[in-house]
Amino acid sequence: MPLLTYEQARPWAKAMRTVVAQGKMPPWHATQERGVFSNDRRLTDEEKATLIAWADNGAPQGNPKDLPPAPKFSEGWEIGQPDAVLTMKTAYHVPPQGTVAYQYFEIPTNFTEDKWVQAIEVRPGVRRVVHHVLVFCRESSVAERLQSQQPAGLVSDANGITGHGTLSGSAKAQQAAFSSILPKMPFGVGGGGNRGVLIATTAPGTNAMVFPAGTAVLIKAGSVLTLQVHYTANGTGADDQTSVGMVFAKEPPQQEMHNSAFINALFTLKPGDPDTEVASMIQFNENSHIYALFPHTHLRGKSWEYQMIYPDGHSQAVLSVPHYDFNWQTYYEFATPLAVPKGAILEGVAHYDNSPNNSSNPDPKIAVHWGEQTWQEMQYTGITFTVDQQKLAEPPTGAAEARGQK
User: Fold this and answer.
1) How far apart, in whole angstroms, are the C-alpha atoms of residue 380 and residue 265?
2) Least confident stretch, 121-135, 141-155, 328-342
3) Strand runs labelled E in 81-205
4) Of 5, 193, 203, 310, which one has the greatest count of Cβ atoms within 10 A?
5) Residue 346 is part of which domain span?
6) Residues 24 and 152 grouped into a single domain
7) Which residues share a beta bridge with 345?
């Protein structure tokens, strides 16, 4: 429901009081103290007390003359009016019923010069049938090479996934930063490595990605985007045409921002097991800084813990999500980027409840493995980072003409 005016909010005063007092709203699931994450949604104690007192006293309106100016929103875009909007060429029909396999759609950028992207947002055409979207970016030289030859041998790409193909320049830079220390993943997990590097994500609970000043994502001239879209039938058919909006940096950045992921696809959740632990780890090959982490499991996931293990052997907890909620997925953005020295290991441990006590469990009687659909499971961590030594001596061609966020 909208809560933009007093008239809209007043009928919900009692309900708001309850969920705010219980800590259920605004939704936030990390336990680190306030100030660790820049996008922390939690209310302060003073804010909670004010709202509760307002509801307890009959939710009075107050003096309308004291209202600040109403905020102005760009229609449909969290990042403001984008400098570029790239949209699926044709709409995809989502049937009213049945399982829809992941769909992949290519969108040429048609950029004639390299672009530095300061903010990026995925905008589903019909949000009620789009569960999530991953956006990958492939350089045009890679696309031309793949059309003219068969894929080469197995490579471990920047997303921590194994697939056929060769790595573009951006992917090589990402792979240089860290490497998975798990066994090779099965071919086909995530669709292989030919789609390029991950640059954007949307899922229930996420927000648009706006990168700090001095950092930006590089999209090379002529690159092609690939959208991985997870559609969910909801009883009513729909024609979706998802878009990606971008705001270009005002000035060339000092550091290139990277979005990537690491996973563990080799697990089994036994029938009825209330607590299965699954770990994934990556080792950093260069001094780096982590800007955000994105824990992701499905309906059986119940908690996440991340710790950094430093080269001297000591460890530090960097993110704790003891009550993971599939309905509210969050990129946890560090207020101060996490410095990671070369040789450090980031470990992510997820716990799963495949028992009948889990009210969200689709079927506690079956063994569960990695899979794309919601009734299957994942152990996936998105990561946003920079590489310290990757200082940008010269801006790419065309960066000076890029326009900034409005």
Assistant:
1) 8
2) 141-155
3) 84-87, 92-94, 103-108, 115-123, 130-138, 154-156, 162-164, 178-180, 197-202
4) 193
5) 84-401
6) no
7) 283, 309
The helix-helix angle for 13-22 and 45-56 (nearest 10°) equals: 150
Q: What's the rounded Cα separation, in Å, for the pair 220 and 199?
A: 12
Distance CA 264, CA 319 (A): 18
- Domain end marker among 17, 40, 66: 66
- Rounded to two decimals, what is the model's pTM? 0.84
37 and 95 within one domain? no
- Residue 244 contacts residue 86 (beta carbons within 8 Å): yes
- Are 37 and 105 found together in one domain? no
Q: Which positions ≥6 away from 45 have C-beta within 8 Å? A: none
Query: Three-state SS string across 372-389, please?
Result: CCCCCECCEEEEEEEECC
Between residues 160 and 241, the one the model is more confident about: 241
**Token pair of 204 as six digits:** 């229930």
Residues 6+ apart with CB under 8 A from 372: 101, 102, 230
Residue that the structure tokens 């107050």 belong to: 62
- Concatenating the DSSP letter of every residue in 180-219 gives E-SPPPPTTGGG-STT-EEEEEE-TT---EEPPTTEEEEE
Radius of gyration of the chain from its Cα atoms, rounded to whole angstroms: 22
Q: Is 375 left (phi over 0), alpha (psi -120 to 50) or beta?
A: alpha
Single-letter residue type at 402: A
Pairing of strands 215-219, 255-256: parallel
